[in-house]
Amino acid sequence: MTDTTLPKVTIPSLRSKKAAGEKITALTAYDYPIARILDEAGIDIILVGDSLGMVVLGYENTIPVTMDEMIHHTKPVVRAAKRALVVGDMPYFSFHLSERETIRNASRFLKEAGARAVKVEGASKKRLRLIEGLIEAEIPVMGHVGLTPQSIHHLGQFKVRGGAAIEAEKLIREALALEKAGAFAVVLECIPMEVARIISGALAVPTIGIGAGPWCDGQILVFHDMAGYEYGYLPKFVKKYADLQNILGGAVNAYIRDVRTGAFPGDEHSYHMKPEMAAALKKIRP
Ligand code: KIV
């Protein structure tokens, strides 16, 4: 059960947490049962990430994920989250054509799915204008810089960003620009912790790190990575807290064995007729 004494997480409450030096917790979810587990455990932010494509839908990267898929998976997460702030991730090509199209797509997360904010990758000049447009349309935006998986073809591979001083300087400028554009938080993905420390100290809004070290104001991981429920490659920054794949594999193996040997279903999993009905049936079918 969700602890009802805990107040609902809001955008201002995240900022207050940063001011009070309290760490913000975030994980991804893409369905009702996992979102319920996260919410009831007291997580602050649930991101319906476009990592959906890789960890749930079996795509090679996040590029093929569509708006319809994101909305479909955001709805059950919102139904489960009584306290956490649910953020919908804008998938590739949902914010690239025009401001009008971007606002229409982002508004679907709020109007159709019930999320309370969206996340947008990148901080180019054009991207910052779009983010301003979203905020103008009352859509709270979480920024995302560093390794931005939607740029995979441009980057060539997933690797640490901001390792060189000049790149680090650019990252710091981008994070500041996102704050200026109105982002309520900024995800820092796969960057050196020294850079994340500077950014976290420079911004008034919280930084949420993933592979960005301990000085971020909060941390996020992909649920399937931290729970050991994935088939992909696990980056160095992931700490595995469970081994769901083995636990579930073990359960399925035991089920197969029980069905084959007749150990399942047992009497306790079967229904009985009332004795008088069983006797009446015996008269019809001796
Ligand atoms: O899609 C996602 O899950 C993300 C997080 C890794 C931040 O963008």
Explain this structure:
It contains 12 helices and 8 strands. Helix content is 44%, strand content 13%. The longest helix has 18 residues, at 244-261. Strands 1-2-3-4-5-6-7-8 form an 8-stranded parallel beta barrel, surrounded by 7 helices. The protein is α/β, with parallel strands linked by helices. The mean pLDDT is 96. It has 2 domains: 11-242, TIM Barrel; 247-282, no CATH class. The chain binds 3-methyl-2-oxobutanoic acid (KIV). 3-methyl-2-oxobutanoic acid binds next to strand 6. 3-methyl-2-oxobutanoic acid binds at residues 28, 47, 49-51, 89, 187, 189, 210, 220, 222.
Associated small molecules = 3-methyl-2-oxobutanoic acid
Biggest sheet, open or closed, and with what strands and sense?
A: 8 strands, parallel, barrel
The averaged pLDDT comes out at: 96
Taking all Cα atoms into account, the compactness measure Rg is: 23 Å
